[in-house]
Amino acid sequence: MSTDPFSLFSLKGKVALVTGASAGIGYAIAQTFAHAGADIAFGYNSSPTAVQTAAALANAASVTVEAYKCPVGDPDAVASTFVSALEKFGKIDIVVSNAGITWTSGELIGPPDHKAWKQVMDVNLDGSYYVAKEAGKIFKAQGSGSLIFTSSISGLIVNIPQKQAAYNASKAAVTHLAKSLAVEWASFARVNSVSPGYTITELTRFADAGMRDEWVRRIPMGREALPVELVGAYLYLASDASTYTTGSDIIIDGGYTLV
């Protein structure tokens, strides 16, 4: 293995599949991986411009980027995406299970039915399982691979002032799923997670100014993160710089969980 720190972080010759790649944290990850040299299987759900975004990224980074419509709550769609990506690229070295949704229904007893709860679990938890299952099949056959989950500090603490028990529970499960798979798959793959704190993306648009002010007041660094400030952790976990790292959860939250 090379001891050159820059070559350790290179992804040249590797293929990465990223779900939820059309915007926010997912796009920042895909962009970083592409510029580090990886070809990208670009998973998206409903973005009307995802195909164009993927093509622009391919042109900017001089790599192959193929867009796949992949609603992660649908196990058949996830399986089809992996089959198509494997046929296209011949291998998949890195998988980032990033797609997720927030809970905006308020306290758990508030919603009149179970649809909101089921939707959050379908995407955040079940979707993570479906992605992991397909990634694991490929990694085991290859004898190597790196699976990275986007979890959240909401899996570690209870956020306030918003009431989001469902979201918190889903992310706690994702974090522990990553740790469990790290042990089960230790002979052929590495599994880790990244737990971002408050980050400026489309997912946080539900919050009004008062709620955002409360978030910032509780963050020691006094601001929310930009997606680009998270990508170093993903690059580390995807690259040969982390070949002895598995079962880790990297918290990037401006100090929020320390106070």
UniProtKB/TrEMBL annotation:
The keyword Oxidoreductase applies. GO terms for biological process: carbohydrate metabolic process; small molecule metabolic process. One of its GO terms (molecular function) is mannitol 2-dehydrogenase (NADP+) activity. Keywords: NADP, Oxidoreductase. It holds the Pfam family adh_short_C2. InterPro entries: NAD(P)-bd_dom_sf, Sc_DH/Rdtase_CS, SDR_fam. Belongs to the short-chain dehydrogenases/reductases (SDR) family. PANTHER family: BENZIL REDUCTASE, L-XYLULOSE REDUCTASE-RELATED. This is Uncharacterized protein. It comes from Lipomyces tetrasporus.
